[in-house]
Design a protein that fits this description.
heterodimer, A: mainly alpha, 8 helices, B: 79 residues, mainly alpha
């Protein structure tokens, strides 16, 4: 095996001047807040889409998250990045939308599944560049469908850690769960996604197998 | 170290968060267990697909509605 750190470096979000805009926005400078919106609107919309799986809900989440952030700026302590704080607001808005649509499905305090179901059922080699079998747009559809099929508890942790690239600590903070719970859910989410992608990337498959069940 | 333990440590192994002793135990297992090696490689690939997915521009209509809503509601608040 090669290096233990195959995953790309987590890129800092926001830049070093973020706090300047936050301070100015706190004093009522709408242009400074607008600058923060411009920086994060794409990321927050992607996050909202990944949580809700629905464009209309994602747009509501996007608007509400920024409105609430501005309204509550005086409660932002400055002990975390503004972006992490904004993510937390957006996650809460997204969860509210999910619970409205699918009550009983989202509960971050539910017991974790038993440990013994972690061993993968399908073990196959995908080859060096399995993604090259698909056009970019098709690959994106496959990835979107795979992630949308995950249970919300796992999906949201995966989205925050591996797509939005928050640390385990920031993810725990955003979801109000422990760091070990983040790590446990992240492992399961990664393994589940791997299994969901397997039908598309295993050798000898036609590029468009039947869609895996959700 | 058995396969079950390797899978349990998989995430932290891929994130480079294992301590040296555990890391070396995982490596030793992977050197002779092809199944675990395939799971590690395909999980790593899975993460990379999502990690590398492009951040698309906000659709124009969504952006317009966001900025209009902010302008209207925030100006109302600050007056």
């Amino acid at each position: 095996m090669n290096s233990p750190k195959p995953i790309p470096e987590r890129t800092p979000v926001g830049g070093t001047d973020e706090h300047v805009f936050v301070e100015r926005a706190r004093l009522g400078d709408l242009a400074a807040f607008e600058e923060l919106v411009n920086r994060y609107e794409r990321k927050i919309f992607r996050l909202a889409l990944n949580i809700t799986g629905n464009r209309e809900d994602a747009e509501d989440v996007l608007q509400e998250a920024f409105l609430k952030a501005y309204t509550n700026l005086d409660r932002f302590q400055g002990d975390s990045r503004f972006y992490t704080w904004l993510v937390r607001i957006a996650v809460n808005e997204g969860l509210m939308k999910l619970r409205k649509r699918r009550p009983n499905v989202v509960s971050f305090d539910q017991e974790l599944e038993a440990e013994d179901d972690l061993l993968p059922r399908q073990v196959e080699d995908w080859g060096p560049n399995p993604e090259q079998r698909f056009a970019q747009i098709e690959l994106q559809r496959i990835l979107d469908e795979a992630i949308a099929g995950l249970e919300p508890d796992y999906r949201i942790v995966f989205v925050l850690r591996d797509i939005e690239q928050l640390s385990s600590e920031e993810t725990a903070q955003a979801l109000d769960i422990s760091v070990p719970a983040v790590k446990s859910r992240l492992l399961r989410a990664r393994l589940k996604l791997r299994e969901r992608l397997n039908p598309y990337f295993r050798p000898g498959e036609s590029p468009l197998p039947a869609r895996p069940e959700r | 170290m058995d396969c079950r333990t390797v899978i349990r440590e998989l995430s932290e192994y891929l994130d480079g968060e294992l301590d040296r002793t555990l890391f070396e135990e995982v490596e030793r297992h992977l050197a002779h267990c092809q199944d675990c090696r395939l799971v590690v490689n395909t999980t790593k690939k899975t993460i990379e697909f999502y990690c590398n997915s492009a951040l698309l521009p906000l659709p124009e209509d969504v952006r317009d509605r966001l900025h209009t809503a902010l302008a209207t509601r925030l100006k109302r608040q600050s007056t």
